[in-house]
Design a protein that fits this description.
Shape: globular
Largest sheet: 2 strands, parallel
Radius of gyration: 14 Å
Number of helices: 4
Number of strands: 2
Distance between the termini: 27 Å
Helix content: 55-70%
């Protein structure tokens, strides 16, 4: 049995308001517009899914993300967003176990 088959990938997902807040924090690390981001994010999501991976959209609230970054001593950039999505996904799974 391949252990990777049960792994889920968390992908940060933003509504327009949260994305605009993100853009203020990391203008170099985001697309130029929310529409561009959404188009590119959807393409990435479906490409990852099509390659056989389990992927989950993780809704992100910027204030919670920033608090988490501060706790971890991370800058609010692409790497930390990926880590945060994984953290939130694990947190959701742990909550569902209880």
């Amino acid at each position: 049995m391949d252990h990777d088959e049960n792994i889920e990938i968390g992908m940060c997902w933003f509504d327009e308001e949260q994305w605009n807040l993100l853009r203020e924090l990391d203008p170099e690390g985001t697309d130029d517009t929310y529409e561009d981001w959404r188009k590119n994010a959807n393409k990435a999501f479906y490409d990852i899914r099509a390659s056989g991976h389990k992927i989950v959209k993780v809704a992100v609230k910027i204030d919670e993300f920033l608090a988490w970054c501060e706790e971890k001593n991370y800058e609010p950039v692409s790497f930390s967003r990926s880590e945060y999505a994984s953290f939130k996904l694990r947190q959701a799974h742990e909550k569902n176990k209880n």
